[in-house]
Amino acid sequence: MPAQANVTYPFYCITNNSLIDAAIGEAQMFVDVEDFGFDGTYNQVLFTFRNEGPDASSITDVYFDDGSLLMIDMIINTTSQVEFSLGASPHELPSGGNLSPPFETTVGFLSDSDPPVQPMGVNPTESLGIVFDIEIGKTYGDVLYALSIPEDADNGLRIGIRVQGYLSGGSESFVNIPAPGALLLASIGIGLVGWLRRRRSL
């Protein structure tokens, strides 16, 4: 697969504790996957997590399941209001084990926001960058291919996020949508949020 400059993936909710919160997350949360070049030893890939807003919500935990990734090289906290560190609590994506195949976080492939958790997470209009080294002999194109086969437990790559900071006080778990269905499902999520907002205002 030829390398591309930037590919954007939306997320779908796997918990649905609240229909409104799930729809907000599906409409507002995205991850951009970008070729980060060669550092002299490894090819690298940048994952940029974005919360486009406007509804109250905060990405507080990020998880990766397998793929062609080797290790987290750096975390890019884009502003003083976003602070993430290696490791996460809980250690697994909540409800990820209910997926088929189960979402199993790769050792060391997780990060969460520093205390206080929700204010330091990725709130509306904010973003977070995580740079990975790619396995020797693998390329950015291999990472994109792995993202396209999430059902392959051995070779696929899935990205999970936990979102908190909703007005409801609840939390939801999300997993990235593989292309090419990503844009269609994202547009459905945006439409659902608008419909729910209208219902709340009646």
Could you describe the 3D structure shown?
The chain is α+β, with helices and mostly antiparallel strands and 202 residues long. Helix content is 19%, strand content 36%. It is built from 3 helices and 10 strands, in the order E-H-E-E-E-E-E-E-E-H-E-E-H. The chain has helices at residues 19-28, 140-147, 182-201, and strands at 6-13, 29-38, 43-51, 58-66, 69-77, 84-86, 110-113, 127-134, 157-164, 172-176. Strands 5-8-3-2-1-10-9-4-7-6 form a 10-stranded antiparallel β-sheet. Strand 2 (29-38) and strand 3 form a beta hairpin. Helix 1 (19-28) packs across helix 3 (182-201). The longest helix is centred in the C-terminal third of the chain and has 20 residues, at 182-201. The protein is globular and about 45 Å long. Mean pLDDT is 90; it is low at 181-190.
Fill in the keyword field for this structure.
alpha+beta; ten-stranded antiparallel beta sheet; 3 helices; 10 strands
Describe the structure in brief.
With 202 residues, the chain is of the alpha+beta class. It is built from 3 helices and 10 strands, in the order E-H-E-E-E-E-E-E-E-H-E-E-H.
